[in-house]
Amino acid sequence: xxxxxxxxxxxxxxxxxxxxxxxxxxxxxxxxxxxxxxxxxxxxxxxxxxxxxxxxxxxxxxxxxxxxxxxxxxxxxxxxxxxxxxxxxxxxxxxxxxxxxxxxxxxxxxxxxxxxxxxxxxxxxxxxxxxxxxxxxxxxxxxxxxxxxxxxxxxxxxxxxxxxxxxxxxxxxxxxxxxxxxxxxxxxxxxxxxxxxxxxxxxxxxxxxxxxxxxxxxxxxxxxxxxxxxxxxxxxxxxxxxxxxxxxxxxxxxxxxxxxxxxxxxxxxxxxxxxxxxxxxxxxxxxxxxxxxxxxxxxxxxxxxxxxxxxxxxxxxxxxxxxxxxxxxxxxxxxxxxxxxxxxxxxxxxxxxxxxxxxxxxxxxxxxxxxxxxxxxxxxxxxxxxxxxxxxxxxxxxxxxxxxxxxxxxxxxxxxxxxxxxxxxxxxxxxxxxxxxxxxxxxxxxxxxxxxxxxxxxxxxxxxxxxxxxxxxxxxxxxxxxxxxxxx
Length: 488
Ligand code: ADP
Ligand code: GLC
Prior knowledge:
Blueprint: E1 2-6, H1 18-32, E2 36-42, E3 53-62, E4 68-77, E5 84-89, H2 91-94, E6 101-102, E7 105-106, H3 110-127, E8 134-138, H4 139-142, H5 144-150, E9 163-168, E10 176-177, H6 182-185, E11 198-199, E12 202-204, H7 205-212, E13 215-218, H8 221-226, H9 237-242, E14 247-249, H10 279-289, E15 300-304, H11 313-324, E16 329-334, H12 338-350, E17 355-359, H13 363-372, E18 375-378, H14 388-394, E19 398-402, H15 405-410, E20 424-426, H16 431-447, H17 449-461, H18 466-482
Bound molecules: adenosine-5'-diphosphate and alpha-D-glucopyranose.
């Protein structure tokens, strides 16, 4: 089976969040399971051309009213694999330091930038003479692909047997633009209607992708149900409900080569189930490197993530002072909303020995926090899958999570009576519920040491393998291929 996998970010080339982690690993597992996979992404400024192979071709892309654009193509490989990754070079659009925005301001030509990515994917497949059975498009950036496959490319014999799969990693971002984008897409205005591309007087690329794709997936079974409700649907719940017959939730896996305390090169001391006590050395190192008081008996809570409303940072900001009164240490790594950067950045001045924050992006530190913390806080308002809580499990760092989306699917709540569970969950999106759950976790750490240790042992043994998820994706691919012809 030939799979063309299109994503706007792929680890280790460009990353703002979990989409990159998934796009850097899933294709390798699809290939291991027997697919022939090629990945397509933009060549952003930060991606070093010298490490790539320039292909001797220029490809013309029809950008509708904007005319024809000429792109160049570079080839590389996903690390430790034979999976080819193709980089679309169009300097005017992608030769910038940000992926989607700069200094908090979204690029004003994002519609054009990602319509180009989608259109180029078709033409790259042709130029390489790679006939995809499946084009796997990720998030709104590539959601134009299913639309074009059913419109502009409908009668193109090269794609006669091609089906599209669209994966929603985050429904909050939909690619909503001025309706003039219809003329850049270059498709008939009849598709600009409330059942296909139109929403609230604008073009909604994700909505269109959902309407036209052959199969729709999202990154956890619970999120697949949630996005059909008003609370989590971001206005598309009715549209998704109408297309739910083709919707599947497939949990992300984890790259255990990258996230594994037994061989992690960033942490002070490697450990695993059999020498779990060595985790303490990572805690010492973490406290020291942040300049906090080194008291290994004091519970240490970690946070790594984007400072975005999604991640429950308002809830954290509302309770953090009461939480600090529980006499704990807290380490935070993240960046994003300015108010949060100011607020959490400033807190370390108030609690110089107990609270530390690093405002920015730092992979090494993310590893140190996963390894050195006793507990990991992730109180998301919504969470399609979430990766950090799964990494935490592998590091025997017990997650404190809100029971939504993938957080609910991956974490089992602590049950002291039956000695079960690997994390601490709460349901209400309130500061009070968050506070009491943190308190419960802290008290478990302090007064129920055996229970806490048993949870850690269960956590470190738990696995979320990409192999299993890749097989499920292949099941979805096969399902679309059974459907004989496309509808008119
Ligand atoms: P999302 O994709 O919504 O941001 P995920 O939990 O799926 O959430 O993935 C987040 C990924 O980004 C993880 O690999 C996490 O370690 C990483 N990450 C987020 N913020 C930072 C940061 N400030 N520094 C380093 N890594 C980060
Ligand atoms: C998104 C979601 C996150 C998910 C990631 C990868 O960024 O916010 O929950 O883990 O995509 O699928």
